[in-house]
Structure formats: C-alpha cells, structure tokens
Amino acid sequence: MTSVEEAETEETVTCLHLTFYHPSQDEKMVFCCLNFCRREQVRADETAKFGRDPSVCRYSLRDTRVSRIQFSLQFFRKLHTSEHCFEIKNLSKKTKLTVNQTELGYLNKIDLPWKCIICFGDYQVLAEIQEGESMDYFETHLHLAEAPILQERCLPSLQPIPETGISPSFFLSQGKSPTEIDENEL
C-alpha cells in the first residue's frame, strides 16, 4: 500500500464567508480588529459573537454605536440530516438586526440562509455558507467590501408589482408615467 491509500480521508470544512461594509470604514477604522483574508477555525461548540467588547466577542468592531455584544452565530446540524447550518441571534437591546428583510429584535433568532445580507445600524454584512462535512469545527473567512453590499448585489426592490407584471420602474426608465386604464379597455 502507498501512503495515499493509508492516509485518512480528508473532511471538508463548512466555511462561513462574511463580507463587511461600513460607510465610514476609511475614516473610523471600525474593522481594524478583524483578520481579513485569512480563514480562522472555530470549534463547533463555540458561539461566534460579534460586537464592541473584545473580551467577550471573538469578532470585535471598534465603534461606540455597536452594542457590547451585537449578535451571535451558532453552528449546528439539522435534526435527522447531515446538513450543517448557522443560527443567528440578535443580542443587542438597542439595535434591530435584519437578515435579508427579516427583522430580529432582542434575543430573536433564525437560521441563517445559505446566502444573505445582515444589517444593523450602518453595517452591511454579506454572509455566504460554503458547505462541509466536519462536525468538530467550522471556519470563518472575513472580507472587506469597497462598496455598499446592498447596491452591489442589486437586491430585488420591495415595490409591489402590478398584476400586469410590469414594474413601475419600467415606466420611469422609459420617461413615461404609468396611466390608469379600465380593465374592460384591455
């Protein structure tokens, strides 16, 4: 047998990619305590906390408007499956947290979608889960965005679309305004 045949099978590791944006990053250096562009291992039984207090939070943000503990991420395995997920919990009594467009108050928690945008205050965080098999730990990989994430990703607008299926923004881009017509005239 060769050494390749005798070697243990490598497990893939779940990786949570987090891309951070704040409009005053260049002036205030709010992300100076984060290690960007380097993967970091986190034990599966640990809760990854984000906030202002570096003695409690693994990921510290240098901003007095951020709560001591803003939010946490808990790694878990769904019941009766091999699928690994993250749960996000808002730990701020003062600031609401949104995940995509779901608003979380203090101590509210939800499962983190495989790709979503987390917002609190002026912060925008793009979270993307890269699936893996390991149950002992997961990895985080932090990135810094140059431009606002919400504009960059072109998320669908929250404007209602009429039954015709034509968005009001279509008329605006054509230089026309929408006109009301009777359904019997169609």
UniProtKB/TrEMBL annotation:
Tagged with keyword Cytoplasm: yes
Location in the cell: Cytoplasm
Span of domain FHA: 49-121
UniProt cross-references to CDD domains, sorted A to Z: FHA_TIFA (cd22714)
GO cellular component terms listed in the entry, alphabetical order: cytoplasm
Keywords: Cytoplasm, Immunity, Innate immunity
Pfam families hit by this protein: FHA
Record-annotated membrane-spanning stretches: none
BP GO terms, sorted: innate immune response; positive regulation of canonical NF-kappaB signal transduction
Protein family: Belongs to the TIFA family.
Matching PANTHER family: TRAF-INTERACTING PROTEIN WITH FHA DOMAIN-CONTAINING PROTEIN A, TRAF-INTERACTING PROTEIN WITH FHA DOMAIN-CONTAINING PROTEIN A FAMILY MEMBER
Protein name: TRAF-interacting protein with FHA domain-containing protein A
UniProt organism field: Daphoenositta chrysoptera
